[in-house]
Specification:
By secondary structure, the chain is an alpha+beta fold. It contains 6 helices and 3 strands. A hairpin with a 5-residue loop joins β2 and β3.
């Protein structure tokens, strides 16, 4: 998962798998599932499952995951400046990111 994907989870607080999938670009279900599994093991993402039919699973950032958000926001803003300067356009993933606007402010 990329930085902007963590930021969407931080912004929305709780997402189901399908919500995370919609936010992601160019990732297979297998890679997303593996990334989520690793983030859960690293205590960055919390997985909460409900005993319902149909089954419901929600993902949210842990306290540790929340602590990395400001760092990722800075990286997104910084990379947005240089990507735009090098190519003249913004990556598709960055267009969704709230922190893309802060990158434009940092340029000025």
């Amino acid at each position: 998962m990329e930085a902007q994907d963590y930021l969407c989870l931080e912004r929305k607080k709780i997402l189901r798998y399908s919500g995370i999938r919609k936010e992601m670009t160019n990732i297979t279900d297998a890679v997303l599932a593996a990334a989520l599994k690793e983030l859960i093991q690293d205590d960055i993402v919390k997985r909460k499952s409900y005993d319902e039919v149909p089954p419901r699973v929600e993902y949210s950032l842990t306290e540790k995951g929340d602590s990395v958000v400001p760092i990722l926001q800075s990286i997104c803003a910084w990379s947005g400046i240089f990507r735009r300067n090098d190519s003249g356009h913004v990556l598709a993933q960055c267009e969704k990111c709230d922190y893309n606007a802060s990158a434009v402010r940092m340029e000025k």
